Amino acid sequence: MISKPNEHVIILGGGVAGLATGLELIRRGRRVTVIEKGERVGGLARTLVYGDFRFDIGGHRFHSHKPEIIAWIKELMGADLLRVPRISHIYLQNKFVDYPLRFPNALSIFSPPQAARILASYGAAALRRRLNGRKKDVSFEDWVVHRFGRAMFDVFFGPYTEKVWGISCQELSADWAAQRISLPSLTEAVKRAIAPGAEPPSTIISHFWYPRAGFGMIPDRMSEEIERLGGRVLTSASVAALEPRSDGGWRVHVQERDGVQRLTGDRVISSIPLHYLLAALPPESGAADIARRFSLSYRDMVLLFLALKIPRVSEDSWTYFPQTELLCGRTHEPRNWSAEMAPEGRTSLAAEVFTSRGEATWEMSDEQLVARAVREFEEIGFLPPHSLMDAWVLRVPYAYPVYYIGYAEKVRRVREFLDAAFPDLHLVGRTGSFRYMNSDGVIEDALALTDYLTGTRHEYVDVSKDYKVD
Ligand SMILES: Cc1cc2nc3c(=O)[nH]c(=O)nc-3n(C[C@H](O)[C@H](O)[C@H](O)COP(=O)(O)OP(=O)(O)OC[C@H]3O[C@@H](n4cnc5c(N)ncnc54)[C@H](O)[C@@H]3O)c2cc1C
């Protein structure tokens, strides 16, 4: 099970997970080949360049609660990391208010009867929790209603979450809320409101790290380091089939532009979508059957990159639009993260449309998507008229693993099958192991896997269990 020094490890996928794992393994004396389908490395964390403008796929900030992960990234990036203030607003009740919601600022945007209803329903939920004890929440809706009350769910959590995921909050697992929602309770908020000067909750971070020329500098640097240390990173190279060799190890069939290359390796680590991996394994191993029985869904998205003739839209890192009638769910303004992201005197917006392949918004033409987004932003006063200079559209499949109720059991069954059938095949990262983690969690996972494989730790620690995105 444990990897031998100098063994050849083939890594499927050149996103943050594949590259961080490759880099740590090569630093610890293994030979590494990374196979990436895209023309460039980085996956969801890459930065795209259009003319003088640079865009991430949805604005990636770096943050971790673990000092060792911050130290790891600082060591990699050196002086290229900037410290950026986090300022976000949400468009609610025709106003832009602080996000995450802060009280009483947040309550003040509602009419007095609405505010009273929110407080009363919060009070009733708190009382019910006290009387009934801690029941296990199954769905996202249960989780929120038990903590915040029905009125807050109806006004905010319900519509936004259904817009992001495209499914009802009763189908979405409570795991997602537990990992993601770091709102202070109303009681804490009210306490803070009447005790000015109280510290903000530690869960709301005020600054984050960001590479000066876009988040994609991080995977690019990892890839350069792997090559500098003698490893290989193949791009425009897609894994077509994985063949276990009878004498141990693997033969990996890689589709490149000019034909199929066969690589031999001692161990395979996968960070590609799970069903691609299962489809690449020999069907007689049972992989095809497992893929059919325990299929998992990923949410896709469309990114609209808008170059603007104006110097600034807002001071925000992110701006949220929960309304289902508005096309975009969230924007970020890259210039507010680093001045290198847009030319002098100009700014830009990256606007996220949450959708999936086959949905109406996925099928709309690029021109229709841009025209509708810009019209809506102008109508609500977010963009001044005639500020658009140019636009590009990017469709991004496999953007988010969807935590449908029951997903955890499916993931467990898939892993159980892979562990039993292929002990020298491992999963890593967000896309590859179907775990909702940001890049810091993905790097932590890569370190946990390499620690285990190189014998630094006796067992593999699933970092996603305690992972919190905030
Ligand atoms: C909109 C959005 C906003 C985000 N914001 C943040 C943020 O602010 N901060 C943060 O830290 N994280 C953020 N994240 C999360 C972050 O992008 C991920 O945690 C991280 O990039 C996942 O890396 P990964 O390597 O696990 O997966 P991926 O990036 O999906 O990498 C998988 C790679 O496998 C490749 N691949 C697929 N199929 C094949 C094949 N057959 N053969 C070879 N290669 C293949 C893909 O091309 C891809 O490069 C955000 C994500 C999204 C979608």
Written description of the protein model:
It is a single chain. The chain has 470 residues and is an alpha/beta fold. Among the domains are: 193 residues, FAD/NAD(P)-binding domain; 93 residues, no CATH class. The chain has 15 helices and 19 strands. Strands 7-6-15-16-17-14-18 form a seven-stranded mixed beta sheet. Strands 9-2-1-13-19 form a five-stranded parallel beta sheet. Strand 3 and strand 4 form a beta hairpin. Helix 1 runs parallel beside helix 15, helix 3 crosses helix 4 and helix 4 packs across helix 6. The longest helix is centred in the N-terminal third of the chain and has 21 residues. The site of flavin-adenine dinucleotide has 37 residues, from helix 1, strand 10, strand 18, helix 14 and helix 15.
How does the helix and strand content classify structurally?
alpha/beta
Distance between the termini: 35 Å
Distinct bound molecules: flavin-adenine dinucleotide
Task: Estimate the strand proportion.
Answer: 15-25%
Rg computed from alpha carbons, rounded to a whole number of angstroms: 23 Å
Mean pLDDT: 91
Describe the biggest sheet?
7 strands, mixed
- The shape, in one word, is globular
* Architecture (CATH level 2) name of the domain at 8-43 and 67-78 and 212-293 and 404-466: 3-Layer(bba) Sandwich
Under CATH at level 1, the class of the domain at 8-43 and 67-78 and 212-293 and 404-466 stands as Alpha Beta
Strand order of the largest sheet: 7-6-15-16-17-14-18
Task: Name the descriptors.
alpha/beta, FAD/NAD(P)-binding domain, five-stranded parallel sheet, 15 helices, binds flavin-adenine dinucleotide
